[in-house]
Amino acid sequence: MEGEKQRADERTLEQEYIQNFLDAGATVYELTKEEKDDLYKKCESVYAMQRERTGAEISDKFLSTAGK
Length: 68
Prior knowledge:
Elements: H1 2-23, H2 33-42, H3 44-54, H4 56-66
Helix pairs in contact: 3-4
């Protein structure tokens, strides 16, 4: 699917950006699974609002490629 390819391309770029930060001496913190789950839970009301605005199909596609 086009959306999945686009997200995969974005993740590749993100890794390049992260490496650039590391190369410049920055510290990059990666969230644990528990932290990601907590953040997702805190954003549920935002996801629900967006789902109403864009429709279930688009929202579900986004969330399926965004990862938790």
